[in-house]
Amino acid sequence: EIVEAYLGRTVKNTVVIVPAYFNDSQEIKDVGIIVRLNIIRITNEPTTTAIAYGLHKKATSVGEKNVLIFDLGVGTFDVSLSTIEEGIFEVKTTVMILKGISAN
Q1: How far is the C-alpha of 21 from the C-alpha of 45, rounded, in Å?
Q2: Does the keyword Aminoacyl-tRNA synthetase apply (predicted)?
Q3: pLDDT above 60 (res 45)
Q4: pTM of the predicted model, to two decimals?
Q5: Closest Cα partner for 69 from 52, 84, 50?
Q6: Rounded distance, CA 8 to CA 25, Å?
Q7: CA–CA distance, 1 with 7 (Å, rounded to integer)
Q8: Which secondary structure element, helix H or strand E, spans residue 46, and what is its range?
């Protein structure tokens, strides 16, 4: 309702962004059905960040780019390495570090 009020029109399709290590996509799809939304894609935060960066840099970028993404979340610190080339975004790896846990 909030989004529809802001946009001034009905929303039927959506992309859902989840944390880096979210693993219950079926539950999100089920909720989408309940609230009558067509969830066209479920993507994690590092991928979404890479896409936003790639779209922002598209006008000035040529060739393959490796992008290191830092996600300073509430309970975790995620680092992802992504490659962007010709509109294709590929997350190579994501590492999650729990905050407050030291390697020492």
Answers
A1: 9
A2: no
A3: yes
A4: 0.62
A5: 50
A6: 29
A7: 10
A8: helix 45-57
Count of other CB atoms within 10 angstroms of residue 39: 17
Q: How would you classify the pairing of strands 76-85 and 13-18?
A: unpaired
- Which residues make Cβ contacts (< 8 Å) with residue 70, sequence separation at least 6? 77, 78, 79
Please, which residues bridge with residue 44 across strands? Answer: 18
Structure tokens at 4: 């529809």
Query: How far, in Å, CA of 84 to CA of 91, rounded?
Result: 9
Nearest Cα neighbor of 46 from 62, 60, 67 is 67
For residue 22, the SS3 value is coil
- pLDDT of residue 103 exceeding 70: no
